[in-house]
Design goal:
The protein has 382 residues and is of the alpha+beta class. It has 14 helices and 13 strands. The protein has a single domain, classed as Creatine Kinase, Chain A, domain 2 (2-Layer Sandwich), CATH 3.30.590.20.
Length: 382
């Protein structure tokens, strides 16, 4: 089968953020999304909101940006969407948090959203889909050709542990400490067609692979390929899907800058005839595991010989290397905020810190609400 790729302008940016809706009184997830969507449609004369969408469970809403030139534009779009949601929810006693997993609410207590697509996925996948009460962030960065999208997807796989380590914000699940920095990663990996992207040589091989998956009944459409990084033919982007939802807008914007600058750099290297970086399959898988397990405490494998280096040093070097591209893309401040995450710790670290101080997971949820509301890492409700 032929898969048409719709090229984008160089390094355009789109961001999708999945948000959890919580009861302000007890911190538990609450299925308020249908009411929010209905009210938004009422305000728009019956039309669905173009940038606020349902997700698998009614306790989740997804906020989507338009096609943006800069990280600042994307952040503004997200803030506008969140403000609309908050204005409807808070009078009802419902708050919003951004984290990879809710710390204690069990998926079995929540209602799924109505929709044939959701029903079809759950019917086919069963238990791994039913327990998919997770929240992530997807970054779309525009590329100018289908062949570049394959080459850049392959190269971005080497950076996956950086994005995962920085975004890790899901240490708790169903009321227990999982011991992981990003437990969401392991929950999501249980689905078919997820995980690291296979290394493909060119667009022809991508088309052939999609044909094989569809013919075999593994997927019904390309939309069901949920790799950590994937070409998105309809949008003309490379989509980075490995990140946990992060508690503050500054963190979300920082990784948007990291994504946009990385794609811009790889695009330029291709134009100059350079070969993009790659790693052995076992190195990619080991480093993804280490980032999910240890977050910013991970020691990443550098090469097939097994040499390692602390993830923080690798991140610092990446930020320095990408800063000229950040200045070109007008996101130097946001890329610099990556270093702030190294200082303040990830959402996972901060959640554990609150629990150590209080012994109370409802206090963890309250802290997550405060962080999103104030855009301050470590904030707590007054």
């Amino acid at each position: 089968m032929q898969v048409e790729f719709h090229p984008s302008e160089r390094s355009s940016l789109g961001v999708e953020v999945e948000l959890a809706l919580v009861d302000m009184s007890n911190g538990a997830l609450v299925g308020a999304a249908p009411g929010v969507l209905a009210e938004l449609a009422r305000r728009r004369g019956g039309e669905e909101h173009p940038r606020i969408k349902a997700e698998l469970y009614q306790c989740t809403l997804e906020v989507i940006t338009g096609i943006c030139d800069t990280v600042a534009d994307a952040r503004s779009d997200l803030e506008d969407g969140i403000a609309e949601i908050r204005g409807i929810l808070e009078p009802q006693g419902v708050g919003i948090i951004s984290a990879g997993l809710h710390p204690f609410t069990h998926w079995q207590t929540q209602e799924r959203s109505v929709g044939e697509r959701y029903d079809a996925i759950v019917e086919r996948v069963q238990w791994p889909a039913r327990r998919l009460l997770t929240h992530g962030i997807h970054y779309h960065v525009g590329v100018r050709s289908n062949e570049k999208s394959i080459a850049i997807t392959n190269a971005l796989a080497t950076m996956l542990p950086i994005f995962l380590g920085l975004s890790a914000s899901s240490p708790f699940w169903h009321g227990m400490d999982t011991g992981l920095a990003s437990a969401r990663t392991k929950v999501f990996e249980a689905l078919p067609s997820t995980g690291l992207p296979p290394r493909l040589e060119d667009w022809t091989e991508f088309e052939s692979f999609m044909t094989s998956l569809i013919n075999a009944g593994t997927i019904s459409t390309i939309r069901e390929v949920w790799w950590d990084i994937r070409p998105h033919p309809n949008f003309g982007t490379v989509e980075l899907r490995m990140c946990d939802a992060m508690p503050t807008m500054t963190e979300i914007a920082a990784l948007a800058a990291l994504a946009q600058c990385a794609v811009e750099r790889y695009d330029e290297l291709l134009d100059r005839g350079y070969r993009l970086p790659s790693d052995r399959d076992w190195v990619l898988r080991e480093n993804k595991w280490r980032a999910a397990r240890y977050g910013l405490d991970a020691e990443l494998v550098l090469d097939a010989a097994g040499r390692t280096r602390h993830i923080a040093n690798i991140i610092e070097e990446a930020v320095e290397e990408l800063m000229p591209f950040a200045r070109r893309l007008d996101c130097a401040d946001q890329l610099g905020d990556v270093m702030g995450i190294l200082s303040s710790g990830t959402g996972s670290t901060r959640q554990r810190r609150v629990f150590e101080q209080t012994g109370d997971l409802t206090a963890v949820v309250a802290a997550l609400r405060a962080e999103l509301a104030t855009d301050t890492a470590g904030a707590t409700l007054a």
